[in-house]
């Protein structure tokens, strides 16, 4: 069994990670951090998610001598990531990262840390999205030259970053299939653009509404036909189960940077 610690245990994903960890027969949840200002410090993690007492209490992030956890999972926010990476490097723990909306500088921090510990970083931990990414590369190779490509994503009203990390990763797979750099062809904002569509661009559109868990569609639109590839997540538990699987997988690695396709084996 892999002992796993959770950063941001009281977040939407934090609670789902606890649920998936308690259900899992390959990991134990052995520690769970909340902010040092949190009124929840000391609460049991089972009770936090409305289940029976589990025997692990929420502890403050500032606590130093906590852990028999070999792997930590971070689904917090970009501003918390650097501290969490440093904590894992200093304590020689491996790390699973699901935070999106990262800057280039924060991605470099992940790469540097992966020279010392093993990290799985993915913008989406569902099996379906990771399969879809491979299908998108093929679609781009077959239809990309003659079709207009657009990516549309929809999420809940609380989401802070746009476009979603998943949408950007989808764009990267499509750009790879086309043999171009996403940065050269992405159109994230068409406000005030007058004129016809830029040929060869990949457009992005983001919707934010209600409680949508996460929906992504890539459209390949030619004259006379249109291919749409869609993934819909209906429960955050799917991401949490993927991250728990990644935690068990990465516990056996020494160092290096991996993604969810590595974990799934394709
Ligand atoms: N890769 C994937 O498969 C998925 C990725 N995500 C990503 O995960 C992230 C979290 O999403 P979600 O759970 O909805 O967000 P929430 O806002 O519900 O949770 C964020 C958590 O981070 C904590 N946090 C925020 N800032 C800090 C800080 N400075 N220091 C310490 N802790 C902090 C919050 O603590 P507090 O409660 O005290 O505010 C909270 O527990 C997002 O980036 C999202 O895009 C989401 C789903 C799937
Ligand atoms: O914030 C979310 O909720 C989600 N974020 C991830 C992203 O930005 O792609 C993954 C998933 O779509 C849910």
Report what the structure shows.
The chain is α/β, with parallel strands linked by helices and 266 residues long. Helix content is 35%, strand content 24%. Helix 1 crosses helix 8 (237-250) and helix 5 (127-143) runs parallel beside helix 6 (165-178). The model has no long low-confidence stretch (mean pLDDT 96). The protein has helices spanning 12-23, 45-48, 78-90, 104-113, 127-143, 165-178, 182-185, 237-250, 260-264, and strands at residues 2-7, 27-34, 58-60, 71-74, 94-97, 118-121, 148-155, 186-187, 202-208, 214-221, 226-233, 256-258. It is built from nine helices and twelve strands. 40% of the residues are buried. It folds into two domains: 2-121 and 236-264, 3-Layer(aba) Sandwich (Rossmann fold); 127-233, Dihydrodipicolinate Reductase, domain 2 (2-Layer Sandwich). The structure holds NADPH dihydro-nicotinamide-adenine-dinucleotide phosphate and ligand LZUJQKHR. The site of the ligand O=C(O)C1=N[C@H](C(=O)O)C[C@H](O)C1 has 9 residues, from helix 6.
Topology:
Elements: E1 2-7, H1 12-23, E2 27-34, H2 45-48, E3 58-60, E4 71-74, H3 78-90, E5 94-97, H4 104-113, E6 118-121, H5 127-143, E7 148-155, H6 165-178, H7 182-185, E8 186-187, E9 202-208, E10 214-221, E11 226-233, H8 237-250, E12 256-258, H9 260-264
Parallel strand pairs: 1-2, 1-4, 2-3, 4-5, 5-6, 6-12, 7-9, 8-9
Antiparallel strand pairs: 7-10, 10-11
Helix pairs in contact: 1-8, 3-4, 5-6
